[in-house]
Amino acid sequence: MPSHAPASRELHLNINMLHSGFVPSAWRLPEAQTDALFDVAHYVRLAQVAERGAFDAVFLADTAAISDQVQYRSINALEPTLLLATLAAHTRRIGLIATVSTSYNEPYNIARRFATLDHISAGRAGWNIVTTADPASARNFGRDVAIDHQERYARAAEFADVVKALWHSWQPGAFLGDKNSGYFADPDRIQPIAHQGKFFSVHGPLTLPPSRQGHPVLVQAGGSGDGRELAARHAEAVFSASESIDESRAYRRDLHERAAKYGRGPNAVSVLAGLTTIIGATEEAAYRRRDELMDLIPLEYSVKRLAGTLGVPLESIKLDEPIAQNLALPKNGTHTFFNTTLAAAKRTGATARELIREFAGGGGHRVIVGTPEQIADDIEHWFRTEAADGFNLMPDTLPGGLEDFVDGVVPILRQRGIFRNEYRGDTLRSHLGLGAP
Amino acid sequence: MPSHAPASRELHLNINMLHSGFVPSAWRLPEAQTDALFDVAHYVRLAQVAERGAFDAVFLADTAAISDQVQYRSINALEPTLLLATLAAHTRRIGLIATVSTSYNEPYNIARRFATLDHISAGRAGWNIVTTADPASARNFGRDVAIDHQERYARAAEFADVVKALWHSWQPGAFLGDKNSGYFADPDRIQPIAHQGKFFSVHGPLTLPPSRQGHPVLVQAGGSGDGRELAARHAEAVFSASESIDESRAYRRDLHERAAKYGRGPNAVSVLAGLTTIIGATEEAAYRRRDELMDLIPLEYSVKRLAGTLGVPLESIKLDEPIAQNLALPKNGTHTFFNTTLAAAKRTGATARELIREFAGGGGHRVIVGTPEQIADDIEHWFRTEAADGFNLMPDTLPGGLEDFVDGVVPILRQRGIFRNEYRGDTLRSHLGLGAP
User: Fold this and answer.
1) CB contact, 8 Å: B302 with chain A?
2) Based on the domain organization, do A268 and A288 belong to the same domain?
3) Of A32, A81, A143, Cβ closest to residue B82
């Protein structure tokens, strides 16, 4: 084993349960259940398949607004913490990570909901902290646009501080349940947090003590400077979006350096890179699957999406002309995939129609098309070169793409000794190799 | 059957899953599981017993703050919507009603969480609307005291309007899932609600369509004028707290009259009266059980609670002196039980020690001590005299008191033809005899 892959490192796998799958046309395949997005049984099946694969966690992304793409594709519909509370009853070991925004919630409520999920699941909860930039969400909460970027992240950092303090407002030994004395709890060990900050005043304490994993795992996905700083301070796992090994290594190193400033070692935070897989028994079959999926994406949808991404009028998209050299994405630093793809299109003189095809399947994350062996090779390479500690998988279709991964790729990763054969612990924290907080 | 009990009326039963039971000392009985309040298995058992009894619903009360009684008794700890999402997986037919406050939440989030619970449970969700008056909750959300009573209810009414509008922001036929055309949904049938009110601006639409029961059942428990008006406008079931048949009949009539102003008939809202049961195989055994439970309530707790309820210093409580004639409860109109008990104590010259014993077991709701037959008699009498459409049961202990009710009282109610032998529908709305909203 090369020196840059210490024996103690362990690959982490996480499934992003994006309704019918990552590819917009996934719901149109003959085998797809079109209303899967509203059907808890669909998510139960995904969670059970992932647990069969001994994945670290299932993950639910979220936006508290309807996607404007709903005319053409499946969306995230169900509220994630509720859905995971149901999945807790249908699974035993797998971690349960939900996305909740710090911009449109109160820290007391969120501390309590994740603490509850953590008790319900016996220590398997994780919170993916997002700050929510989109204007559609803002309009559902009394605003025209989102709070300014920097302020959003300042609020998120304080929000997370409050939540963590509440999670530990019951000290060890606070719960007594002493039938003889009649004392149910020791009020001296259940203390207010009396937080008074810039954004929040929260007295506390919480209504319940820490769970068996100490507290829910904190997850984050920020690519911007503010996002990285928030991750460095609070996150125990990070979902990253990197196109190349070099980019991902640089991101991971930067994150470790930032975390060190907060007294946190490199093992305190795992980097899980976003990865879409399109799997076939042969490479040819995989590309055939890809082409079939791409052909099912309506052109109308792709043109609207391209215009929306570029921030240009629909009419300005000329399908069969080369991409204009002055086209650029609105600046916000999170769309590496689009920037890279756009730059390549300009360089090669690709038409809008050709660019659309590249855009259509992706969405800020890397896509691999290939056999289980080829996908395992890629994953192993990223892992051993320390470009990532694991992957946040976004299969092309669900449940099919996940089943193909668990049945095809996972056994190879196990043969190569980089992924667990079975769970060794019962909590999300134990799967991620994190100590008690 | 007397004319005042039309054949179409049906008794409704609801279980208030108050952790270890309604009596503060319930957790101290030898058979009690002291940490039941944190244990989802406890609640699963309660829900399954209630479902075996064909109850309309399980219900979770809630306060988003820790009870100051936790030193001496079990409390509501877990967040109710999450807990019910788990219980949805362990039950098939029973309704699931959670309490959530309109004062410390955003309507978009609440609309979405209950819509999600409604989908997860296939149409069994209910929302108990509360406005939250206590200062401890206020301090967890950036305030020193609660919002003023009238403003709280004005906010609640607008909050409920917004939630209902969001629940119907997907019109029938909005979801297409048409694999051939590639259209997933019809955006013309998914419309913003564009609400601009005094308290909220919410654009919408929601991320999901109505569930099979139309929308979650709205429940309320307001005794004040503002509370009754909110119930008259929005509630489909009301939890009431009446000490006598006359009082309850008057309350129910008043509610029907108020509802009529909003164009709602008397069948649009069911009155479920709060009822604590202490059941024994014989009347003597029931009173023995009551005495055992009362003896296990620490005097220290009772004195603190009495002083707190009266708003007087602890030292002013003289245990063995008659209750002072000038003692009165702080005016807020919701503590009928305390007022009645206090008045009786003054009239009879009872001591504080004697008053405490009356107070200790109660808490704003009626208590019956007796055999299953006696309890069935009482329930039938209230039902046939139209004092109530059903009961929100708060057994002395849980699960014991609920099991005794389901195994002892329910069969008698069935023999008498006033309670269903089995569920006829699958939704909470069908159990309550409510039409589509």
Assistant:
1) no
2) no
3) A81
| A contact test, residue of B67, B81, B86, B145 with most A CBs within 10 A | B86
Q: What does the block give as tokens for A376?
A: 């395992």
Report the chain A residue with the minimal C-alpha distance to residue B76.
A207
Contacts of B322 (CB under 8 A, 6+ apart): B349, B350, B351
* Selected residue of A207, A208, A213, A294 to mutate for chain B interface (largest B Cβ count, 10 A): A207
Of the pLDDT bands very low, low, confident and very high (cuts 50, 70, 90), residue B361 is: low
From the list A66, A90, A190, which residue is nearest B205 (CB)?
Answer: A66
Q: Which of B346, B363, B380 is the last residue of a domain?
A: B363
Whether B107 maps to a domain, the answer reads yes
Q: Does B91 touch chain A (CB under 8 A)?
A: no
- The rounded distance, in Å, linking the Cα atoms of B130 and B125 is 16
Nearest chain B Cα distance for residue A145, angstroms: 12
- Shared domain for A397 and A256, answered yes or no, is yes
Same domain, A119 and A237: yes
Those of residues 126-185 in A touching chain B at CB distance below 8 A are 136, 139-143, 175, 177, 179, 182-185
B74 CB within 8 Å of a chain A CB: yes
The answer on B167 and B78 residing in a single domain is yes
Domain presence at residue A17: yes
Tell whether B77 lies on the interface with A, counting CB pairs under 8 A: yes
pLDDT value at residue B360: 64
Q: In this complex, how many residue pairs, one in chain A and one in chain B, have their CB atoms less than 8 Å apart? A: 198
The residue count of chain A comes to 437
Helix (H) or strand (E) holding A356: helix A352-361
Q: Is B27 on the interface with A (CB under 8 A)?
A: yes
pLDDT at B316: 86
Asked if B196 and B322 sit in the same domain, the reply is no
Asked whether the beta carbons of residue A38 and residue B209 sit closer than 8 angstroms, the reply is yes
A414 falls within a domain: yes
Which residue from A minimizes the CA distance to B38? A119
- Summarised one tens digit per residue, pLDDT across range B169-207 is 999 999 999 999 999 999 999 999 999 999 999 999 999
Find which of B27, B92, B178, B184 to mutate to test the A interface (most A CBs within 10 Å of its CB). Answer: B184
Please write the tens of the pLDDT for every residue from B128-178.
Answer: 999 998 999 999 999 999 989 999 999 999 999 999 999 999 999 999 999
Range of the domain at A120: 12-168+203-280+371-431
Number of structural domains found in chain A: 2
Query: For the segment A222-272, what is each residue's pLDDT rounded down to a tens digit?
Result: 778 899 999 999 999 999 988 899 999 999 999 999 999 999 998 899 999
Statement to judge: residues B230 and B344 lie in one domain: no
Taking only the tens place, the pLDDT of each residue in B25-41 is 999 999 999 999 999 99
Q: Which of A308, A336, A364 is the last residue of a domain?
A: A364
Q: Which of A27, A177, A179 sits opposite B184 (nearest CB)?
A: A27
User: Are residues A145 and A18 part of one domain?
Assistant: yes
Residue A389: which residues within 8 A CB-CB, separation 6 or more?
A: A9, A11, A12, A252, A270, A271, A272, A383
Mean pLDDT for chain B?
92
Look at residue B333 and tell me whether its pLDDT is greater than 50. no
Instruction: State whether residue A423 sits within 8 Å of chain B by CB.
Output: no
A190 is a domain residue? no
Domain of B20, CATH number, reads: 3.20.20.30
Indicate whether B310 and B402 sit together in one domain.
no
The pair of three-digit structure tokens given for residue A70, joined into one six-digit string: 């709903």
